[in-house]
Write a structure and sequence with these properties.
alpha+beta; about 230 residues; 9 strands; Cyclic Phosphodiesterase, Chain: A; about 30% strand; single chain; four-stranded antiparallel beta sheet
Length: about 230
C-alpha cells in the first residue's frame, strides 16, 4: 500500500520518519481553486412542468424508434435559462448572488405563458427541441438585459445573440437533427398553452455526471423585492 492510502495523517508522518516529516514541513501548501458551474434561470411552476411532461411524451411517441437518438431533458431539470455563467471561481459566487438579487429587484413578477413548440435551427432539422414562452416577453427580455448589466462588470458578459425565450426539452445526438418530428412539432405549436407567473429568479449550480446533469439552487431572488 502506498503512503497515505488508508492511513491517518499522524500515522503517515510516523511511517515516513524524520526525513519525510521535514520534507512535508518544507512544502508550501497551495489553495486548490474551486470553480462552480452556474447559470441563472426561471423555474417553471407545477402546472407548466406538467404540461412540459405531456409535450415531451407526445414528442417521444411521435419520434418512435428515433426517440433514442434524442437526449431528453429530465422534467425535474427543465428551466428557462436567462444567462449562462459557466465556471465561476468560488470566491466570486457571493458577488454573483448580489448581482442577481439586484437585477431581480429592478424587475417585477412576470405573467408568462408556455406556448407552442419548435426546433433549432428548424422543425425539419431540429437539433434542439423546445417549448416556446409567450406573454410578457418584453419585460422578460428587459430582465435578461438587467442581469447582463449587473453581471458584466464581474466578467460574465451577456450573449450577443438576441434573447429567444424557450424551455429545452431535448437535443438530437445526430448533427443533422432529430428525424420524423417536424409534423409533431407543428402540431404541438397549435396545442393549448399553460399560464406561468414568474415571481423569482434562481441561481443554479450544475453538477455533471455520466448519468446526466443535476441542478441545485444556490440562491433565489424575488422579482421586485430588494435583496
Amino acid at each position: 500500500m502506498a503512503p497515505g492510502q488508508g492511513f491517518p495523517a499522524l500515522v503517515v508522518l510516523t511511517w515516513l520518519g524524520r526525513a519525510g516529516s521535514r520534507a512535508i514541513r518544507g512544502q508550501q501548501w497551495h489553495h486548490v481553486a474551486v470553480n462552480l458551474r452556474l447559470f441563472v434561470a426561471l423555474e417553471p411552476p407545477d402546472l407548466v412542468r406538467h404540461r412540459l411532461s405531456t409535450l415531451k411524451a407526445e414528442l417521444q411517441r411521435a419520434a418512435g424508434r428515433g426517440s433514442g437518438d434524442v437526449k431528453w431533458v429530465a422534467i425535474d431539470n427543465v428551466h428557462l435559462t436567462l444567462q449562462f455563467l459557466g465556471a465561476v471561481p468560488e470566491e466570486r459566487v457571493d458577488p454573483v448572488k448580489v448581482a442577481v438579487a439586484t437585477a431581480a429587484a429592478e424587475a417585477r413578477p412576470l405573467h408568462l405563458e408556455l406556448r407552442g413548440a419548435g426546433g433549432f435551427p428548424s422543425g425539419r432539422r431540429a437539433r434542439v427541441l423546445w417549448a416556446g414562452v409567450g406573454g410578457e416577453v418584453a419585460q422578460l427580455t428587459a430582465l435578461v438585459a438587467a442581469l447582463g448589466r449587473r453581471l458584466g462588470p464581474l466578467g460574465f458578459a451577456a450573449e450577443e445573440r438576441p434573447f429567444s425565450p424557450h424551455v429545452t426539452l431535448g437535443r438530437s445526438r445526430d448533427p443533422r437533427g432529430a428525424p420524423g418530428l417536424a409534423a409533431a412539432l407543428a402540431l404541438a405549436a397549435e396545442s393549448p398553452g399553460a399560464p406561468w407567473r414568474a415571481t423569482e429568479v434562481v441561481l443554479f449550480q450544475s453538477f455533471l455526471s455520466p448519468k446526466g446533469p443535476r441542478y441545485e439552487a444556490l440562491a433565489r431572488a424575488a422579482l421586485g423585492t430588494p435583496g
